[in-house]
Amino acid sequence: MLEQRIQQHFIDSADLKYQAAQALSHPIASAVQAILACVTGGGKVLACGGGLSAVQAQQFAAFCVDGLERERPELAALPLGPSAGKADAAALARQVRALGQAGDVLLAITATGDEDALLDAAQAAHERDMTVIALSGRTGGALAGLLRETDVQICVPHDRAARVREVHALVLHCLCDGVDAQLLGEQEIPL
């Protein structure tokens, strides 16, 4: 019984990834182009996440700086998080206002799209003339409603947070690989 349950997790995850591949490839490519324009123009990516997605934001920033699978020059990226001594919803927005500049990108990662801190961060990014890439789940939540025409929404069409985060991890790998391929050319990655 337990083994069947475990196997079902793998099947459900693979099925969602297969379904999402075609639907998400265009917005992921658009996000790659936005990140590429940002970093090659001297800008930086500010990455933040709601709840458990904050860890994925930290990981993405590390991929930008350290690389994913290929050696390349460091890309300017910073993870945003709770301020020391201030654990309020406005902390991310304050960091965006302090660090963000026109031409920068805010990558906001959320399973639901409804966290107040991310909504405030997206609004702060718009105040700074930054592009927002919203990596969300379900229907995109309230964050989807804040996006401008120049922003990018990558919305995993699923209600279960665990499945959404699994696809988010793959999307983050695709973003980094896409930027690397654009900067360094296509290359076979050794297995």
From TrEMBL:
**Looking at the keywords, is Isomerase present?**
yes
Top-rank EC class of the record's enzyme: isomerase
List the CDD domains hit by this protein, alphabetically: SIS_GmhA
Q: Which UniProt keywords apply?
A: Isomerase
Q: Where is the SIS domain?
A: 31-189
Report a single Gene Ontology molecular function. Answer: isomerase activity
Q: What does the record give as EC number?
A: 5.3.1.28
Q: What is this protein called?
A: D-sedoheptulose 7-phosphate isomerase
Say if the entry is tagged with keyword Isomerase. Answer: yes
User: Which Pfam family, an example, fits this chain?
Assistant: SIS_2
